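Hey L., structure's done. Input below.
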Amino acid sequence: MAKLSPMQTDFPRTHIPRKRFGQHFLHDAGIIRRIVQAIGPREDQAIVEIGPGEGALTLPVLREARHLTVIELDRDLAPRLAALAEGIGRIEVINADVLTVDLTGLAAGRPLRVIGNLPYNISTPILFHCLEHADAIADMHFMLQKEVVERMAAPPGSKTYGRLSVMLQLVCQVEPLLDVPPGAFRPPPKVDSQVVRVTPLPAPERPAPDLHTAIDRVVRAAFGQRRKTVANALGTLLPAARIEAAGIDPRSRAEQLPPGAYVALAGQL
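Output:
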């Protein structure tokens, strides 16, 4: 994991977005202002930005927070960010894949606030990576594909309710904030986007750590065959009697069960 300091400034003014990194750079000043207002950064907070790109969100947040850590995979963008921050505040640039970064270590005992315009091609793995560090995170503000946010916030019974909905809602409160049209980016993506606030629940309200693996197994199995009844989908994991013991009708389908039901099923494992 490489850390950079302000030094390299001999780079072109305009960075060419790279498809392999899923780069779409936010440029709409009004949208940026609303996102910063939603975040409400302060000087006494530990803030980490994932995928800062050209710094559209980085710089206005840095003006308020005075110190910011950013995680950027693109080696061409990392030195740009360090140089742009000069005279605004102190910035630490970590040139790495965020999935390899220990967010709990970055928090260093302080509640971490995580922000970012996430690459849409790996947004779900990044969300799950953040969930692994929920104990160290105060809140998250992310720009995501609108369809992903709808799945994150979907209630039981809806067509978009699935594994992502359950796993996130067991650990966090999900609050969609504002829509962002394709024209707010360079280049424009082919989808609408949305900003979402994700706030980890207090530890006592989250499933016990020793249930995490069992919950993941149950949820994967249930939604892996969502057209089947729970009894059929979980046939290799739990017999119908154990499903009933969890207080669940074996004839139910995966999308009908609230997140808490999966904790009860995991307990039967």
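The longest strand covers residues 137-145. The chain has a mean pLDDT of 88.

-- N.
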